[in-house]
Input
Amino acid sequence: MPTYHEAMTTDLSTLTAAAGRWDGMAKELHKQEIAYKRDVYGISMGQTWRGLSADAAGRRFATTHTEFQNAQVEAKAVASLLRDAHTQFTELRKQLESARADAVEAGMAVSDQGVVSYDTAKLSDGERTALHHDPDYQQSVRTAVVSWQSRIDQLVKDFGEADTGVEIALSAVVIDSNFNDGTLTGFNGQAQGDIEKYEAEAAAAAKDSRTQTNGWKSEGNAKLTGPDVGVTITSDPKYGKEGSVKVYADLFHATADKTLTNGDWKLSGIGDVYGGVRATANYGFNDKGIVGKAEASAGLRALTEIRGEYGPYAGVYGRAEGFAGAEAGVNAKVTKEEVTVGAKAFAGAKGTIAGGGEVAGIGLGASAEGWAGPGAEAWWGYKKDDDGTFHLGGEAGVSPILGGSVGVEITLDPDKLSKTVGDAADAIGEGVGSVKDNVTDWF
Output
């Protein structure tokens, strides 16, 4: 959220300058589209190249040609959004400057950070005396300061809301909304340069995700990212932090979740699909303990999980996972919150089913995997989550060609256990009190 100082001092001309660059990008893309259609796409459209290879190339060339066109639409839309943002911010700044001028004219002082105070430098001797000794005058000054501060704060808030709207629009305009154009995450051929349109769509989506039916409240989210590549390195594991190295090339990553709540009842589900290559390493030797972990994987993963819970008292879950590719890893961790050790190596395809239940904060779960491909895996560990839940479990498996693994996990949530015991004690107390009242009534 922008501050008063940022709203008053930010160079808004950079928005129109950036908009000009985006328009320039659209023009350059148009030139490249013409060249591509002439020198590349046109080869498959003539009579000199025929057959299956020409047909296959033509479809791919057509997709790329469409992407050149979509990129121009997206670039022009971004330019329009930036100019729209400049118009909005300029108008809001004028209102803020006008409010500040009015406050000063009314005898107020406004700091560079937007803090309003009574300007005593211009007071006469009589006004100074009244300010120090007249309660009514003092109250009128306080009321005036609060009123002007409220007006300026509201304008700063309006500036922040406009900034949020611009962020929503710029995030949405680059999302490829047409899954039939040959790409999943290409350029947005339906991009529009209207901030209010994207704000309205975001508000409608938020409203739809929180609908209520027969007492049930529904919330959900969905996200698609990729392709993406990157490298991150943290090489100074001091003050309890871990050093880390991460290299990844994500083709796509899609997630979706849904939650239904009704009083103490809660039903939830999640789906996650990922394709790509990742390699990570974590290491540390400090006051928190010893950490060493390295893992690499390449392939496709899919997961779905469903949970049902009734307050802190009981819950069940079921999970299914699938993996096709290769993975390997080794880890050892000894800290106050976690003690784990394990290793794995696998190539092929595997499927996992898991399920379990929880009563009064004490849970028991089990998993089974079927493997098609050589591999071996074993791990054991104890862990305490940030929310205070304790986990104890392990898994082991081996496969020359066909095989699998089995695993078990025990959990303990002290907060849920404590609440369940407390609620039970309250219920027993109420029951005893009721019996006592009845016995008293009899006599």
Remarks:
- The helical segments are 4-9, 13-45, 52-105, 125-133, 135-172, 195-208, 414-442.
